[in-house]
Amino acid sequence: MTNLRQQALDSIRQANHLVFLTGAGVSTPSGVPDYRSLSGVYTKTGMAQPEYLLSHTCFLREQDLFYQFVKQLYHPQARPNSVHLKMAQLEKEKPDTWVISQNIDQLHRKAGSQQVVDFHGSLYDVYCSKCYQQVDAWTYLEDNQHAGCGGILRPNIVLYEEGLEEMAIYQSQQVLKAADVIVIAGTSFKVSPFCQLIYYKSPDSQVIVVNQDDVYLSVPYTMIQEDVVSFFKDI
């Protein structure tokens, strides 16, 4: 075990205010595809600009196309993996542990984490875009039309061209300001404004990145280029 890896593990174990910033790489071991890899959901569309399928414009103009794509993002058979479970365990051991996640699959919460900021929303929070009544996600997967008023149902996720929830931004900022150790896990950390959250960290906090591919930050950080599952099993 390299000294750098051991130091990173020790820092996480000794942290008082621990924050995880997580991306798709934390959920792929649970069988949830990412977006941009060779097997990712965007790649499989064959479109030059697949982001359109998750845009506000697509939702308004091509509701059937939007619906068919979004249904592919649901993986009800997926279960929290060892990384989700380890983060939940650390929250029990260290009450000031938080997760700020780009993922919309709710696996952190299913693992038992309670201090979670769903930065991009959740697939399992579904509402009617006409009357705003909340609807069960399983009802949505059967039909995107609200039986109550005839409006179009949608999950409460942040689409391209839409603004983020102000509370998610505020809560993330406050959590990061208080952190003494920040772990960026399973993400290339390129999606804005999620990647800009790092600028709200305390000047004294330590940043650790655990990812198979290089991640480049403008703040000092320790890079652990490794699969997240293999790293987290040693915490």
Quick rundown:
Helix content is 33%, strand content 18%.
Description:
The protein is globular. The chain folds into three domains: 1-32 and 80-120 and 158-235, TPP-binding domain (Rossmann fold); 36-74, no CATH class; 121-155, no CATH class. By secondary structure, it is α/β, with parallel strands linked by helices. The protein is 33% helix and 18% strand. The two termini are 13 Å apart. It contains ten helices and nine strands. The longest helix has 13 residues, at 166-178. It has helices spanning 3-14, 24-27, 41-45, 56-61, 63-71, 82-93, 107-111, 137-142, 166-178, 228-232; strands spanning 18-22, 98-101, 116-118, 121-128, 134-135, 153-157, 181-185, 206-211, 222-225. It has a six-stranded parallel β-sheet, with helices on both faces. Strand 2, helix 7 and strand 3 (116-118) form a beta-alpha-beta unit. GO terms for molecular function: histone deacetylase activity, NAD-dependent; metal ion binding; NAD+ binding.
